[in-house]
């Protein structure tokens, strides 16, 4: 963790001492901050004002207990929850999501997500793709693509921020990899892996500027001996790095105490404690995501709780469903009231669904055959259900929706045309953002 202290007036525009800007994983000597903050601009499009918030539910949430209840199924499949009517006539969801039911006209429930490879990680939710047969460098996540294509909206605000903590099962704590787009497009993590590794106390703005001059001298030397052109643009990366360190904008976005208490209460607070090998139930992350997007971040990823419920499925649902209901509904309403919902897309999902049959421990096991998702915002046509499964929730009977179709839709909402735009991999081969001739934006939403 890098903590920058000093005179409040000199650093971070009078930000007081209790709100020091702490930036995980920064290392001035190693130049990691400049690398992380700048994206390639070759395929830049106009994405001003657009954003996306991805809420990942690690472990695989039970589709038939959330948005696709099976009241006509046998008891060993139907489960303990009952459906309730939403604000949209004909659409029912689980009784433990009353607040989302009240704003269902702003939501789309997808009951027919297919294409899951069954692996217990966030990769497919973050990239839309499987992790096998990847190009050199690997597939980039949605946030890294957005960073590369659109770049930062402001030098003091990184385009891609990840709020997911490090988890016991490491693939669940993935905020999104940059893949072949390079470390410059990796997510900025306010509480990253380096939080306990680097603490710099007493660094004033003057000392920071001195270090800036030293780094500039090294870079001028490296540029003079570099024959490949790879050093081109490093100065611009550093401008963003120092822009963040000497501006209060990011620190203010991360300071939730600037929000009125009634807003914080509406989102809730949750638990800042890892759930076994999963994520936290930290509801304040949902509010922080809104603040970050409002400040200029283009993509925010976050994770919530642990959903690998092989036992006590309904006990855990009674605990987690209301918390998710409170935080997500607060986020949707908040974005709407601030006039941001039209431009900001929200997606909630996990890596796969759960077995129709309840096991002997009262849980549901892995079921990659079908899963669910919820979408909001982004200028899409909401207030609908897309897709359907059979009476037992085993497989899709209407309108299968692949992970990549969701990604194509999110990209379109950001102003990115997946039929035209390509990004080069490490071998110089142009790569489409989704598999061409197979997946397009979800036509029901556009």
UniProtKB/TrEMBL annotation:
<protein>
    <recommendedName>
        <fullName>Tat (Twin-arginine translocation) pathway signal sequence</fullName>
    </recommendedName>
</protein>
<dbReference type="Pfam" id="PF07394">
    <property type="entry name" value="DUF1501"/>
</dbReference>
<dbReference type="InterPro" id="IPR010869">
    <property type="entry name" value="DUF1501"/>
</dbReference>
<dbReference type="InterPro" id="IPR017850">
    <property type="entry name" value="Alkaline_phosphatase_core_sf"/>
</dbReference>
